[in-house]
Fold this protein.
Amino acid sequence: MFVKSVMPRFVKNSRGRRSIEVELITYEGRFRCSAPSGKSTGKSEVACYHKKGISYSMKMLRVFCKRLVGKNFIIKDVGGLKDLNDLMRKFEARFGKFGGNVWYAVEGVFLRGAAADVGKELWEFINDDMNRGLKPKMPMPVGNCIGGGLHSKKIKGKRPDFQEFLLVGNAKSFGKAVTKNLRAYEYARTLLKKKEKGWRVKRNDEGAWMSSLANEEVLDILKRVSKRYDLKLGLDVASSGFYDKGYYIYKNKSLVRDKVDQADYMIKLIRKFGIFYLEDGMDEEDFGGFKSLVEGVKKIRRKVLIVGDDLTTTNLDRVRRAGRGKAINSMIIKPNQIGSMLEVKKVVEYCKKNKIVMIFSHRSGETMDNILADYCVGFGGQFMKAGIFGRERLVKLKRVMDIEKSLKR
Ligand code: 2PG
Ligand code: MG
Protein backbone atom coordinates (compact mmCIF):
# COMPACT_ATOMS: atom_id res chain seq x y z
CA MET A 1 0.00 0.00 0.00
CA PHE A 2 1.60 3.19 -1.18
CA VAL A 3 0.98 6.27 0.99
CA LYS A 4 0.26 9.24 -1.27
CA SER A 5 -0.82 11.44 1.57
CA VAL A 6 -1.71 11.11 5.25
CA MET A 7 -3.07 13.89 7.38
CA PRO A 8 -4.52 14.26 10.85
CA ARG A 9 -7.22 16.73 11.80
CA PHE A 10 -9.51 17.54 14.69
CA VAL A 11 -13.15 16.42 14.63
CA LYS A 12 -15.85 16.82 17.27
CA ASN A 13 -17.16 13.82 19.15
CA SER A 14 -20.69 13.28 20.49
CA ARG A 15 -19.85 15.28 23.63
CA GLY A 16 -18.75 18.21 21.46
CA ARG A 17 -15.13 17.60 22.47
CA ARG A 18 -12.17 17.46 20.11
CA SER A 19 -11.02 14.10 18.84
CA ILE A 20 -8.44 13.10 16.24
CA GLU A 21 -9.22 11.88 12.76
CA VAL A 22 -6.61 10.67 10.28
CA GLU A 23 -7.10 10.75 6.53
CA LEU A 24 -5.05 8.54 4.25
CA ILE A 25 -4.84 8.68 0.47
CA THR A 26 -3.52 5.70 -1.50
CA TYR A 27 -3.92 4.62 -5.14
CA GLU A 28 -7.12 2.86 -4.05
CA GLY A 29 -8.83 5.92 -2.62
CA ARG A 30 -9.29 8.14 0.41
CA PHE A 31 -9.85 6.67 3.88
CA ARG A 32 -10.60 8.12 7.28
CA CYS A 33 -10.67 6.94 10.85
CA SER A 34 -11.44 8.83 14.05
CA ALA A 35 -11.17 7.81 17.68
CA PRO A 36 -13.76 7.68 20.48
CA SER A 37 -13.15 8.69 24.12
CA GLY A 38 -14.31 7.19 27.39
CA LYS A 39 -15.48 8.94 30.55
CA SER A 40 -15.64 6.08 33.03
CA THR A 41 -12.16 4.90 32.15
CA GLY A 42 -10.32 2.05 33.84
CA LYS A 43 -7.22 2.98 35.84
CA SER A 44 -5.10 0.58 33.81
CA GLU A 45 -6.12 1.98 30.42
CA VAL A 46 -3.46 3.76 28.39
CA ALA A 47 -3.92 7.54 28.29
CA CYS A 48 -5.95 8.89 25.34
CA TYR A 49 -3.30 11.46 24.43
CA HIS A 50 0.21 12.66 25.24
CA LYS A 51 0.56 13.88 28.82
CA LYS A 52 0.63 17.46 27.50
CA GLY A 53 -2.80 16.96 25.96
CA ILE A 54 -4.57 16.46 22.67
CA SER A 55 -2.98 19.50 20.96
CA TYR A 56 0.48 18.15 21.66
CA SER A 57 -0.51 14.72 20.31
CA MET A 58 -1.73 16.49 17.18
CA LYS A 59 1.57 18.33 16.79
CA MET A 60 3.47 15.07 17.10
CA LEU A 61 1.15 13.36 14.69
CA ARG A 62 1.56 16.06 12.05
CA VAL A 63 5.31 15.58 12.09
CA PHE A 64 5.00 11.81 12.13
CA CYS A 65 2.51 11.70 9.24
CA LYS A 66 4.83 13.72 7.00
CA ARG A 67 7.42 11.00 7.43
CA LEU A 68 5.01 8.36 6.15
CA VAL A 69 4.32 10.03 2.81
CA GLY A 70 5.88 8.19 -0.12
CA LYS A 71 6.37 4.99 1.87
CA ASN A 72 5.13 1.60 0.80
CA PHE A 73 3.63 -0.67 3.48
CA ILE A 74 3.00 -4.35 3.07
CA ILE A 75 -0.01 -5.08 5.25
CA LYS A 76 -1.59 -8.41 4.42
CA ASP A 77 -3.42 -8.88 7.70
CA VAL A 78 -3.67 -7.21 11.12
CA GLY A 79 -0.22 -8.58 11.99
CA GLY A 80 1.11 -6.61 9.01
CA LEU A 81 0.73 -3.43 11.08
CA LYS A 82 4.06 -4.31 12.68
CA ASP A 83 6.21 -2.01 10.52
CA LEU A 84 3.91 0.93 11.20
CA ASN A 85 3.88 -0.03 14.86
CA ASP A 86 7.68 -0.03 15.00
CA LEU A 87 7.83 3.43 13.42
CA MET A 88 5.30 4.78 15.91
CA ARG A 89 7.15 3.30 18.87
CA LYS A 90 10.48 4.70 17.66
CA PHE A 91 8.88 8.12 17.33
CA GLU A 92 7.36 7.78 20.81
CA ALA A 93 10.76 6.91 22.27
CA ARG A 94 11.93 10.41 21.27
CA PHE A 95 8.85 12.53 21.80
CA GLY A 96 6.70 10.70 24.35
CA LYS A 97 3.50 8.69 23.96
CA PHE A 98 0.98 9.56 21.27
CA GLY A 99 -1.87 8.15 23.37
CA GLY A 100 -4.37 5.36 22.68
CA ASN A 101 -6.72 7.52 20.64
CA VAL A 102 -3.99 8.44 18.17
CA TRP A 103 -3.09 4.80 17.74
CA TYR A 104 -6.75 3.99 17.16
CA ALA A 105 -7.10 6.49 14.33
CA VAL A 106 -3.73 5.78 12.65
CA GLU A 107 -3.97 2.00 12.72
CA GLY A 108 -7.65 2.08 11.77
CA VAL A 109 -7.05 4.14 8.67
CA PHE A 110 -4.08 1.99 7.63
CA LEU A 111 -6.17 -1.14 7.98
CA ARG A 112 -8.88 0.43 5.85
CA GLY A 113 -6.34 1.32 3.19
CA ALA A 114 -4.74 -2.13 3.30
CA ALA A 115 -8.12 -3.87 2.96
CA ALA A 116 -9.00 -1.73 -0.06
CA ASP A 117 -5.62 -2.54 -1.55
CA VAL A 118 -6.63 -6.17 -1.86
CA GLY A 119 -10.25 -5.35 -2.74
CA LYS A 120 -11.73 -6.48 0.56
CA GLU A 121 -14.08 -5.03 3.12
CA LEU A 122 -12.26 -4.40 6.39
CA TRP A 123 -14.16 -7.08 8.37
CA GLU A 124 -13.34 -9.54 5.60
CA PHE A 125 -9.69 -8.55 5.64
CA ILE A 126 -9.54 -9.28 9.38
CA ASN A 127 -11.68 -12.41 9.43
CA ASP A 128 -9.70 -15.55 8.82
CA ASP A 129 -12.89 -17.66 8.64
CA MET A 130 -13.54 -16.11 5.25
CA ASN A 131 -10.15 -17.29 4.03
CA ARG A 132 -11.26 -20.81 4.93
CA GLY A 133 -14.54 -20.37 3.05
CA LEU A 134 -16.65 -19.96 6.21
CA LYS A 135 -19.20 -17.21 6.75
CA PRO A 136 -18.72 -15.21 9.93
CA LYS A 137 -21.33 -15.38 12.67
CA MET A 138 -23.14 -12.11 13.27
CA PRO A 139 -22.97 -10.61 16.77
CA MET A 140 -25.97 -9.57 18.85
CA PRO A 141 -26.35 -5.93 19.90
CA VAL A 142 -26.05 -4.77 23.50
CA GLY A 143 -27.76 -1.39 23.85
CA ASN A 144 -27.90 1.18 26.58
CA CYS A 145 -31.54 1.90 27.43
CA ILE A 146 -31.48 3.81 30.73
CA GLY A 147 -28.39 5.42 32.21
CA GLY A 148 -26.94 6.53 35.51
CA GLY A 149 -23.50 6.82 37.11
CA LEU A 150 -20.80 8.94 35.54
CA HIS A 151 -22.55 9.11 32.15
CA SER A 152 -25.68 10.85 33.45
CA LYS A 153 -26.53 14.12 35.11
CA LYS A 154 -28.49 14.17 38.31
CA ILE A 155 -32.18 14.96 38.08
CA LYS A 156 -33.46 16.70 41.20
CA GLY A 157 -30.22 15.67 42.86
CA LYS A 158 -30.59 12.00 42.01
CA ARG A 159 -29.55 9.41 39.47
CA PRO A 160 -29.15 5.63 39.54
CA ASP A 161 -25.75 4.47 40.80
CA PHE A 162 -25.44 1.89 38.05
CA GLN A 163 -24.09 3.31 34.82
CA GLU A 164 -25.98 1.38 32.14
CA PHE A 165 -29.23 -0.54 32.11
CA LEU A 166 -28.80 -2.60 28.98
CA LEU A 167 -30.92 -4.53 26.53
CA VAL A 168 -29.22 -7.56 25.08
CA GLY A 169 -30.47 -8.47 21.60
CA ASN A 170 -32.24 -11.75 21.16
CA ALA A 171 -33.34 -12.41 17.59
CA LYS A 172 -32.59 -14.44 14.49
CA SER A 173 -30.63 -11.62 12.91
CA PHE A 174 -28.69 -8.57 14.04
CA GLY A 175 -31.10 -6.35 12.09
CA LYS A 176 -34.16 -7.75 13.85
CA ALA A 177 -32.47 -7.43 17.22
CA VAL A 178 -31.70 -3.76 16.56
CA THR A 179 -35.35 -3.07 15.67
CA LYS A 180 -36.53 -4.82 18.82
CA ASN A 181 -34.07 -2.83 20.95
CA LEU A 182 -35.35 0.43 19.46
CA ARG A 183 -38.98 -0.49 20.16
CA ALA A 184 -38.13 -1.57 23.67
CA TYR A 185 -36.24 1.70 24.24
CA GLU A 186 -39.38 3.63 23.24
CA TYR A 187 -41.48 1.50 25.58
CA ALA A 188 -39.03 2.27 28.40
CA ARG A 189 -39.74 5.96 27.80
CA THR A 190 -43.46 5.33 28.29
CA LEU A 191 -42.83 3.44 31.51
CA LEU A 192 -40.44 6.06 32.86
CA LYS A 193 -43.03 8.73 32.23
CA LYS A 194 -45.60 6.74 34.18
CA LYS A 195 -43.38 5.87 37.09
CA GLU A 196 -41.37 9.06 37.57
CA LYS A 197 -43.27 12.21 38.50
CA GLY A 198 -42.52 15.10 36.17
CA TRP A 199 -40.18 12.98 33.99
CA ARG A 200 -39.04 14.81 30.88
CA VAL A 201 -37.22 13.42 27.87
CA LYS A 202 -33.53 13.63 28.62
CA ARG A 203 -30.81 11.53 27.08
CA ASN A 204 -27.35 10.98 28.53
CA ASP A 205 -23.89 10.78 26.93
CA GLU A 206 -24.75 7.57 25.11
CA GLY A 207 -28.34 8.39 24.18
CA ALA A 208 -29.85 6.41 27.08
CA TRP A 209 -32.80 7.85 29.03
CA MET A 210 -31.85 9.68 32.18
CA SER A 211 -33.79 9.12 35.36
CA SER A 212 -33.81 9.97 39.04
CA LEU A 213 -35.21 6.56 40.00
CA ALA A 214 -33.35 4.17 42.28
CA ASN A 215 -31.38 1.25 40.82
CA GLU A 216 -34.00 -1.39 41.47
CA GLU A 217 -36.86 0.79 40.29
CA VAL A 218 -35.08 1.12 36.96
CA LEU A 219 -34.45 -2.61 36.89
CA ASP A 220 -38.20 -3.15 37.41
CA ILE A 221 -38.85 -1.07 34.32
CA LEU A 222 -36.17 -2.86 32.34
CA LYS A 223 -37.60 -6.21 33.33
CA ARG A 224 -41.01 -5.24 32.02
CA VAL A 225 -39.50 -3.90 28.83
CA SER A 226 -37.39 -6.97 28.20
CA LYS A 227 -40.34 -9.30 28.88
CA ARG A 228 -42.56 -7.50 26.43
CA TYR A 229 -39.99 -7.62 23.64
CA ASP A 230 -38.40 -10.92 24.57
CA LEU A 231 -34.97 -9.44 25.18
CA LYS A 232 -32.30 -10.26 27.69
CA LEU A 233 -31.42 -7.89 30.46
CA GLY A 234 -27.98 -6.46 31.15
CA LEU A 235 -26.22 -4.11 33.53
CA ASP A 236 -22.96 -2.21 33.40
CA VAL A 237 -22.58 -1.54 37.10
CA ALA A 238 -19.28 0.33 36.49
CA SER A 239 -18.83 -0.18 40.21
CA SER A 240 -15.35 1.40 40.39
CA GLY A 241 -17.19 4.69 39.90
CA PHE A 242 -18.75 4.42 43.38
CA TYR A 243 -16.11 2.33 45.13
CA ASP A 244 -13.89 3.84 47.79
CA LYS A 245 -11.32 2.06 49.97
CA GLY A 246 -13.10 -1.25 50.34
CA TYR A 247 -16.66 0.06 50.24
CA TYR A 248 -19.31 0.55 47.59
CA ILE A 249 -21.08 3.80 48.42
CA TYR A 250 -24.64 3.69 47.09
CA LYS A 251 -26.52 6.94 46.90
CA ASN A 252 -29.78 5.82 45.32
CA LYS A 253 -30.87 4.25 47.66
CA SER A 254 -28.31 5.29 50.19
CA LEU A 255 -26.36 2.33 51.59
CA VAL A 256 -22.75 1.24 52.07
CA ARG A 257 -21.78 -2.29 51.06
CA ASP A 258 -18.47 -4.00 51.71
CA LYS A 259 -16.91 -6.45 49.23
CA VAL A 260 -18.83 -9.47 50.41
CA ASP A 261 -22.12 -7.59 50.54
CA GLN A 262 -21.53 -6.24 47.06
CA ALA A 263 -20.93 -9.69 45.57
CA ASP A 264 -24.03 -11.06 47.37
CA TYR A 265 -26.07 -8.12 46.16
CA MET A 266 -25.00 -8.68 42.55
CA ILE A 267 -26.10 -12.32 42.73
CA LYS A 268 -29.35 -11.25 44.38
CA LEU A 269 -30.05 -8.86 41.51
CA ILE A 270 -29.22 -11.53 38.94
CA ARG A 271 -31.81 -13.82 40.51
CA LYS A 272 -34.45 -11.21 41.15
CA PHE A 273 -34.40 -9.61 37.71
CA GLY A 274 -33.12 -12.47 35.58
CA ILE A 275 -30.01 -10.53 34.56
CA PHE A 276 -28.09 -12.21 31.74
CA TYR A 277 -25.18 -9.77 31.40
CA LEU A 278 -23.31 -8.19 34.31
CA GLU A 279 -20.40 -5.86 33.56
CA ASP A 280 -17.95 -4.56 36.18
CA GLY A 281 -20.02 -5.72 39.13
CA MET A 282 -16.96 -5.39 41.35
CA ASP A 283 -14.15 -2.85 41.60
CA GLU A 284 -11.54 -2.83 38.83
CA GLU A 285 -8.77 -4.24 41.04
CA ASP A 286 -10.88 -6.92 42.69
CA PHE A 287 -10.10 -10.04 40.62
CA GLY A 288 -11.18 -12.17 43.57
CA GLY A 289 -14.53 -10.39 43.76
CA PHE A 290 -15.15 -11.10 40.09
CA LYS A 291 -14.29 -14.73 40.70
CA SER A 292 -16.90 -14.91 43.43
CA LEU A 293 -19.48 -13.67 40.90
CA VAL A 294 -18.51 -16.38 38.41
CA GLU A 295 -18.81 -18.94 41.20
CA GLY A 296 -22.03 -17.37 42.45
CA VAL A 297 -23.84 -17.74 39.14
CA LYS A 298 -22.61 -21.32 38.82
CA LYS A 299 -24.10 -22.09 42.23
CA ILE A 300 -27.50 -20.81 41.18
CA ARG A 301 -27.12 -22.60 37.84
CA ARG A 302 -27.63 -19.59 35.67
CA LYS A 303 -25.88 -18.87 32.43
CA VAL A 304 -24.81 -15.30 33.05
CA LEU A 305 -22.09 -13.30 31.37
CA ILE A 306 -19.74 -11.95 34.02
CA VAL A 307 -18.06 -9.23 32.00
CA GLY A 308 -14.78 -7.44 32.66
CA ASP A 309 -14.25 -3.94 31.32
CA ASP A 310 -12.40 -1.65 33.76
CA LEU A 311 -11.00 -4.90 35.19
CA THR A 312 -9.40 -6.12 31.97
CA THR A 313 -8.97 -2.92 29.87
CA THR A 314 -8.14 -4.99 26.75
CA ASN A 315 -4.73 -5.56 28.32
CA LEU A 316 -3.35 -9.05 27.71
CA ASP A 317 -1.63 -9.30 31.11
CA ARG A 318 -4.81 -8.40 32.93
CA VAL A 319 -6.94 -10.61 30.68
CA ARG A 320 -4.59 -13.53 31.38
CA ARG A 321 -4.79 -12.86 35.09
CA ALA A 322 -8.58 -12.77 34.93
CA GLY A 323 -8.68 -15.86 32.71
CA ARG A 324 -6.31 -17.91 34.88
CA GLY A 325 -8.11 -16.88 38.05
CA LYS A 326 -11.54 -17.69 36.51
CA ALA A 327 -12.65 -14.15 37.30
CA ILE A 328 -14.60 -13.62 34.06
CA ASN A 329 -16.35 -15.58 31.35
CA SER A 330 -16.74 -12.54 29.07
CA MET A 331 -14.97 -9.26 28.40
CA ILE A 332 -15.27 -5.89 26.75
CA ILE A 333 -12.88 -5.09 23.93
CA LYS A 334 -12.15 -1.40 23.36
CA PRO A 335 -9.07 -0.92 21.16
CA ASN A 336 -8.18 2.50 22.56
CA GLN A 337 -7.95 1.07 26.08
CA ILE A 338 -4.70 -0.59 25.03
CA GLY A 339 -3.63 1.48 22.06
CA SER A 340 -2.63 -1.01 19.39
CA MET A 341 -4.52 -3.44 17.19
CA LEU A 342 -1.64 -5.89 17.51
CA GLU A 343 -2.42 -6.08 21.23
CA VAL A 344 -6.14 -6.38 20.49
CA LYS A 345 -5.38 -9.31 18.20
CA LYS A 346 -3.50 -11.08 21.00
CA VAL A 347 -6.39 -10.51 23.39
CA VAL A 348 -8.85 -11.88 20.81
CA GLU A 349 -6.70 -14.98 20.33
CA TYR A 350 -6.58 -15.51 24.08
CA CYS A 351 -10.37 -15.14 24.37
CA LYS A 352 -11.01 -17.58 21.54
CA LYS A 353 -8.65 -20.14 23.02
CA ASN A 354 -10.13 -19.82 26.48
CA LYS A 355 -13.78 -19.50 25.42
CA ILE A 356 -14.17 -16.01 26.80
CA VAL A 357 -17.12 -14.23 25.21
CA MET A 358 -16.06 -11.00 23.44
CA ILE A 359 -18.11 -7.81 23.47
CA PHE A 360 -16.70 -5.15 21.15
CA SER A 361 -17.67 -1.83 22.62
CA HIS A 362 -18.08 1.83 21.74
CA ARG A 363 -17.04 4.58 24.16
CA SER A 364 -19.36 7.11 25.75
CA GLY A 365 -17.84 9.93 23.64
CA GLU A 366 -18.20 8.61 20.10
CA THR A 367 -17.55 9.87 16.58
CA MET A 368 -19.35 9.03 13.34
CA ASP A 369 -16.79 6.34 12.58
CA ASN A 370 -18.16 2.83 12.16
CA ILE A 371 -14.92 0.84 12.29
CA LEU A 372 -16.06 -0.85 15.51
CA ALA A 373 -18.56 -2.88 13.47
CA ASP A 374 -15.84 -4.20 11.17
CA TYR A 375 -13.66 -5.04 14.15
CA CYS A 376 -16.51 -6.87 15.85
CA VAL A 377 -17.49 -8.97 12.84
CA GLY A 378 -13.90 -9.36 11.68
CA PHE A 379 -12.59 -10.65 14.99
CA GLY A 380 -15.70 -12.77 15.66
CA GLY A 381 -17.13 -10.86 18.64
CA GLN A 382 -20.32 -12.45 19.97
CA PHE A 383 -21.75 -9.06 20.96
CA MET A 384 -21.39 -5.45 19.93
CA LYS A 385 -22.17 -2.84 22.56
CA ALA A 386 -22.89 0.37 20.70
CA GLY A 387 -25.97 1.98 22.20
CA ILE A 388 -29.50 2.12 20.81
CA PHE A 389 -30.08 5.70 19.84
CA GLY A 390 -28.06 8.65 18.49
CA ARG A 391 -26.37 9.04 15.12
CA GLU A 392 -22.91 8.03 16.36
CA ARG A 393 -24.42 4.78 17.66
CA LEU A 394 -26.71 4.11 14.72
CA VAL A 395 -23.91 4.28 12.13
CA LYS A 396 -22.21 1.37 13.85
CA LEU A 397 -25.38 -0.68 14.13
CA LYS A 398 -26.17 0.04 10.49
CA ARG A 399 -22.74 -1.10 9.39
CA VAL A 400 -23.27 -4.54 10.96
CA MET A 401 -26.73 -4.67 9.36
CA ASP A 402 -25.17 -3.91 5.98
CA ILE A 403 -22.55 -6.62 6.45
CA GLU A 404 -25.31 -9.04 7.44
CA LYS A 405 -27.30 -8.18 4.33
CA SER A 406 -24.27 -8.55 2.08
CA LEU A 407 -23.75 -12.07 3.39
CA LYS A 408 -27.31 -13.08 2.54
CA ARG A 409 -26.86 -12.23 -1.11
C1 2PG B 1 -18.28 1.52 29.50
C2 2PG B 1 -18.13 2.60 28.45
C3 2PG B 1 -19.06 2.52 27.29
P1 2PG B 1 -16.78 4.79 28.78
O1 2PG B 1 -18.06 1.75 30.68
O2 2PG B 1 -18.54 0.37 29.17
O3 2PG B 1 -20.39 2.41 27.61
O4 2PG B 1 -18.07 3.86 29.01
O5 2PG B 1 -16.59 4.89 27.31
O6 2PG B 1 -17.15 6.11 29.41
O7 2PG B 1 -15.64 4.12 29.44
MG1 MG C 1 -18.15 -0.59 31.10
In short: Residues 5-120 form a domain with the Enolase-like; domain 1 fold (CATH 3.30.390.10). Residues 236, 238, 279-280, 309, 332 surround magnesium ion (ligand 2) (CB under 6 Å).
